[in-house]
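Possible regression after last week's pipeline update?

I re-ran a chain I had predicted before the update to compare outputs. Posting the input and the new output here so someone can diff against the archived version. Not blocking, just want to make sure nothing changed silently.
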Amino acid sequence: MIVAYVMSKSWDVSFTVNGFLAGLVAITCPCYWVSPTGSIILGGVAGVIVVLGAELLEYLRIDDPIGAVPVHGLNGIWGTISLGLFASGQYGVTGVLAADNSAPLKGLFYGGGMQVLMAQVIGSAIITVSTFVVAFIVMYAVHMMGELRVSAEGEAYGIDLHEPAGVVLEQEG
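New output (post-update):
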């Protein structure tokens, strides 16, 4: 909320709500392993990421009217990577019945070195690339079927008023 205000000089409810959601998304992966202080820092960074991510998409002219990519995509990656930074070393790897605290998980900021951080970076990269490849294949298949774009009539009429399946909403009056 504060970062959005500094950038735009106005209070923006959507950035505020997306900031809350971004914090929740970011804490989902590391919630078991981080301290309360780490979780507050993690959530604050998530709020900044959501604003900067939305501004980046706007700059790149990528349409994301509800901010799904910065909230879920960018902050999902941030939350996953943050485990390698903020794991406090109080808890170990989860087991079948309980945590295995004989080998506690420690992030970089708690003296754990780069091992957990690199594992999280590699995992995030693999998931990001895999998702992109599958989405590209699916969208290419939809494009080849001729279903990816709205008709010329729909573009002329206005995409907000035109249904892609060809159903046009009736006008009043």
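Follow-up from reviewer: compared with the archived run. The radius of gyration is 21 Å. Marking as no regression found.
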